[in-house]
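Lab notebook, bench 4. Still working through the backlog of constructs that have no structural model yet. Next entry is a single chain of 381 residues. Request: give me the structure tokens for it.
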Amino acid sequence: MEYDNDRLRKRRPRLETFYWIFLILLQPMTNWVLSPFRWLWIFLLIASLLVFPAYVIYTRIMGTALAIRGRKWFPVLLSISAFLVIQAFLLCVYSLFGKILEFPMKEYFAMTSRHMIREGWWTIANMTLAMAIFYIRKADDEKDQLEAMQKDNTFFKLRYLRAQLNPHFLFNTLNSIYSLSLQKSDRTAEIVVKLADIMRYLIYECNEDKIPLDKEIEFIRNYIEIEKLRHQADIRLVVEGETAGLMIEPFLFISFIENGFKHAMDHTSGEPFIYITLRVANGQLILNVINSTNTDLELQAKKLNGMGMAHSRSLLELLYPSSYDLDIIQTDKDESRTSQLRLRNARERLESLYPDSHTLDVILNKSTFTVSLILKTFSAC
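Model written out:
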């Protein structure tokens, strides 16, 4: 890569270079095939090389002229002027060749009407080809600019979504601290320390496009420890597979985990639980969140449109547009017992996501809210 004033300078594409070489060789090679004079093409190649800068300059000036609106006559006048300049230059070069060469090759460069028509045709053909090369390069540059703009647009969208996720997460965590303070819990100081660790992560370690997966897991553990201090529930986090050396976008999983706690702890009756599994296997990264709920199916569906979940979906669409699966399954204990069809359909969907028989039994025999996120591509350090 080359840089000019810290800006990336794009090298000339190989295809464009090939087109310019083709322009230089077109007339000499055509005459080499058709002309009876075997060595004539060498002189035509010299002339083509000498006049080549004129075609390059013509395309640069012509490109600027075509961009000026309201002066349609200017490109026409410029083309005529360029044609006459190139013809005059070739006339001088061919006159010099005529003095050097002997008959009959000398006859090819004689200043006759036939010669003028032939060279005029070649000049027009080369000017047309030069402009075609210019537009090819322009289209390529515009494509690069569009890709750069799309990349910048995606980058700022990600920053915007993360900026919204962070306050949302901190708001929920501060609510947890507030709740403990009202209870005058001795654990308040401990949860403040955990929050400090989380803040350190958000401020200093969360600004890169990707971070080590182990750091994201540590962040999730701190969040779960805060929730454990706040709630009396069966809360489990299991990490399976080799996570060392893997990279992931920061703050990608927390909304799904937050949503699990929201559903599980949104009631006081029963025995709330939330099981979180993060597994690396077969080139995939899988997050499973299973939590209890007393909310009916209709109200559960409405909660899916919450801010955190909506932002996480947007992040997934930007980061993994065609390489992720997000499966959200809601089950109701009473309905699953009375509806064999629903039970069968739920089992078919869940068996592939939760092969463990105990976990599957918990889901199908209790009112649960389950989230399964599968990332099919992720990078290593």
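Notes after review: The CA atoms of residues 26 and 259 lie 68 Å apart. Residues 113-182 form the longest helix (70 residues). Flag for follow-up if needed.
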